[in-house]
Amino acid sequence: MTSDRPSKKNLWRPYTQMRLAPPPLEAVATHGSRIVLADGRELVDGIASWWTAVHGYNHPHIAQGVAGQLARMPHVMFGGLTHAPAERLAARLAALLPGDLDHVFFSDSGSVAVEVALKMAAQMWLNRGMSGRTKVLAFRGGYHGDTMGAMSVCDPEEGMHRRFGAYLPSQVFCDLPRSPAKTEALDSALAAHRETLAAVIVEPLVQGAGGMVMHPPEVLATIARLARRHGLPLIADEIFTGFGRTGSLFACQQAGIVPDILCLSKALTGGTMALAATIARTEVFDSFWSEDPAAALMHGPTFMANPLACAAANASLDLFETEPRLDQARAIARRFADGLAELKGLPGVADVRTLGAIGVVQFAHAPDLAALKAAFLDWGVWVRPFGDIVYLTPALTIPMGDLDRLIAAVVAVVPGQAAALS
Ligand SMILES: *Cc1c(COP(=O)(O)O)cnc(C)c1O
Asked: How far is residue 266's CA from residue 286's CA, in Å, rounded to a whole number?
């Protein structure tokens, strides 16, 4: 980097008060679980680039799949045309997903996949001749993306939602049904809003960006049962949890449920390219299958089913078939459970929890995030605490040495920061 703030002039950073934040680090290369910086430092990545790089960086099989596709046909419009990479990917996703989740709509980001799911649910009712069913029941603590519709189903108290309240459609919010009382409250809310609700949306097993808050499979099963009882489609946002992160290929499988609509993105291309999918069960799809042109699903992103991204996703699925990703996720879970346990009960530490390849330490109060981030950099690890948590979501392929370094860094850095809070 040549100046102190190289990206001040032209680049606008995500979720960053650029005037206060230290300048971003310049990454020049990646390999395995490592990020190489311009100044020569090499960081062990504890985040897998926002949970995308499940096979580690620069996996040769994905590179090869993309290179071949790049030479043949990098992109072609999807209106009126189709292509083998998309056909193959849709068929493979349908085969991997539970039940008759067989109808795959591609888009280019998680937020858009959620927008498509919301639109699918709303239009499903319109196509069945029922207007007025436009609201969605969502859960407190949830996160579903940054576009307007997706924001409207994020936690209602969280800063961004409240700030943009005036722009957003109003939705119905409930607590996750973790107790008999809360189950009853959810049941009543579903009954009370029955005529205006189009769907229920949930992040199965883990509310990710809302603070890595986990719930047991029975809670998810309860949500599915109540949605069904009230005749509402359930949207499972597996954008974070999909592709092994929770120890099963999809989180829904642990509860034995089949949601009506399911969203995938983050790890879909193994961390290489933007791609998302909204997948519907046959009953949902059939509401759009009609003699009426206006009953068609009204969505179509320009780069829908981009062949390069589909090639990357197909290569990523090959790796799930040929390499022991789920075993690796479970091995990481054991290491987290052992390695992070000693932080439990320390002054200023509220909770330590793990699920699959997710390890979380929660502070009793919001910590000094800038100090934490700097301490992790001193340890040579890329860990990005937010809110009141430090979390690890490494590549499922992370070498045990690198994993131990991440855990050692957390175990070394957290106690001092936590003690300062208590
Ligand atoms: C990241 C995320 C999204 C949004 O995906 P983008 O690709 O950032 O738009 C939506 N839902 C969940 C659960 C996510 O983790």
From this structure: 28
pLDDT in tens, 8-66: 679 999 999 999 999 999 999 999 999 999 999 999 999 999 999 999 999 999 999 99
- Domain spanning 61-322: CATH 3.100.10.20: no
Query: What pTM was estimated for this model as a whole?
Result: 0.97
Strand stretches in 285-397, DSSP E: 349-355, 358-363, 381-382, 389-392
Going across the sheet that includes 389-392, the strands are 349-355, 358-363, 389-392
Backbone angles phi, psi at 314, to 5 degrees: -60, -40
Please tell me the distance from the alpha carbon of residue 165 to that of residue 393, in angstroms, as a whole number: 31
361 lines ligand 1 (CB under 6 A): no
For the CA of 111, the nearest atom of ligand 1: 9
The residues assigned a catalytic role are 15, 143, 237, 266
Specify whether the backbone of 243 is left (phi greater than 0), alpha (psi in -120 to 50) or beta: left
Q: Please tell me the distance between residue 203's alpha carbon and the centre of ligand 1 in angstroms.
A: 10
Of the candidates 252, 236, 246, 261, the residue with the CA atom closest to the CA atom of residue 51: 246
Q: Where in the chain is the domain with CATH 3.90.1150.10?
A: 5-55+324-421
The hierarchical CATH code for the domain 5-55+324-421 is 3.90.1150.10
pLDDT digits (tens, 9 = 90+) for 297-333: 999 999 999 999 999 999 999 999 999 999 999 999 9
Q: Which of 49, 52, 144, 386 to mutate to test the pocket of ligand 1 (most atoms within 8 A of CB)?
A: 144
Which sign, positive or negative, has the C-alpha torsion 340, 341, 347, 351? positive
Q: Which helix (H) or strand (E) holds 309?
A: helix 307-322
What dihedral do alpha carbons 65, 99, 136, 157 form, nearest 10°?
-60
The span from the CA of 348 to the CA of 365, in Å, is 7
Q: What are phi and psi of 237, to 5 degrees?
A: -90, 95
Cβ–Cβ < 8 Å for 136, 172: yes
Could you tell me how many residues make up the chain? Answer: 422
